[in-house]
Design goal:
The chain is an alpha/beta fold. The protein has two domains: about 160 residues, 3-Layer(aba) Sandwich (Rossmann fold); about 140 residues, 3-Layer(aba) Sandwich (Rossmann fold), CATH 3.40.50. It contains 13 helices and eight strands. It has a four-stranded parallel β-sheet, sandwiched between helices. The chain has a four-stranded parallel β-sheet with strand order 6-5-7-8, sandwiched between helices. Helix 5 links the parallel strand 3 and strand 4.
Length: about 300
């Protein structure tokens, strides 16, 4: 429909604004259960080490870039207003809905995860649907993104970051440095209910490796950021791979997340600090890809996802 106004909300996990906010943030993540003092202290330690999470700031930068991209592409008078809503921290999704729907005929929710899992993502969907329902507006159309892990601009954006990172290695090791393409680990029980999610993560990694031109023996898919719970989490974790690389005589490694779209704790602590330490303990020089953040190719990917979601 031409000449309409579209509200777009980028929805992501969220992060505590300050160290004092960590207990409340984790309580939200835990579904209302109070975290132990030990868990709170550990997360405060991690956030302190990275100087606080930049996730909200970066996601707002992504929203501004996306709004500019969408409006510059518009040829039929449609205008776009893009805001950010967080699941577990302010600004909460439900609190942003009144603003993002102002003067809008269509609101589009974009879950900032290319690989879609109904089990994992249902909280975003339900929260946005309920908040829009509470507006009692029959004239407002709601669309929410699902899977977009094979969106071409997204895949090329990650491949570009991998290529840029490889070019920073010394010329004599550039063609043989192993590349670990990582995704967030999760309990094995979740995956057994929803194998397609893991298959999509692996398909993302395989396609990126192909775009970069990595031979099969130069890369592997693995997990990171496993939770501290007694249940079984997905393997292999990148910590398990470091001693294997050492045994194989490798002296360098590149870690490239295929799922995370911005710098946050899982990048700046789990990879930049913890994975680096694990690599260096095994005599391996460590590097990681730059996060997508506001990569022009990635912003084009988000614009395409918005248009595709509107059409569904």
């Amino acid at each position: 429909m031409a000449n309409q106004h579209v509200g777009v909300m980028l929805m992501t996990y969220g992060s505590p604004a300050t160290l004092d906010d960590v207990p409340v943030y984790i309580k939200h993540v835990y579904g209302g259960r109070t975290p132990s003092p030990e868990v709170v202290a550990e997360f405060q330690r991690r956030y302190n080490l990275i100087g606080g999470s930049p996730l909200l700031h970066i996601t707002r930068e992504q929203a501004a870039a996306l709004q500019e991209e969408l409006n510059s592409q518009s040829r039929d008078g449609t205008t776009y207003h893009v805001l950010v809503g967080m699941r577990f921290a302010p600004p909460f999704i439900s609190d942003v809905v009144p603003e993002v729907t102002t003067d809008a005929q269509h609101v589009v929710g974009i879950i900032m995860s290319p690989q879609y899992s109904p089990i994992i993502m249902k909280g975003y969907v339900r929260t946005l649907e309920d908040a829009v329902t509470d507006l009692h507006r029959d004239d407002l159309k709601l669309s929410i993104s699902q899977d977009w892990h094979m969106q071409p601009y997204f895949l090329h954006a990650v491949a570009e970051r991998v290529q840029q990172a490889l070019e920073r290695f010394p010329a004599d090791v550039r063609e043989r440095v192993p590349v670990l393409l990582t995704a967030h680990s999760m309990p094995k029980r979740v995956v057994e209910q929803e194998p397609d999610y893991i298959n999509n993560l692996k398909e993302t990694a395989t396609t990126i490796a192909r775009l970069v031109g990595l031979p099969d023996d130069r890369w592997m898919f693995c997990y990171q950021s496993a939770g501290h719970t007694p249940e079984e989490w997905l393997k292999p974790d990148f910590a398990d791979i470091m001693p294997e690389l050492q045994k194989a005589g490798q002296t360098h490694v590149l870690i490239a997340p295929v799922q995370f779209l911005a710098d946050h704790l899982e990048i700046l602590y789990d990879i930049e600090i913890a994975a680096r330490q694990q690599a260096e303990e095994h005599g391996i020089q460590f590097a990681r890809t730059e996060s997508l953040n506001t990569s022009p190719l990635f912003i084009k990917a988000l614009a395409a996802v918005v248009k595709d979601t509107m059409g569904n």
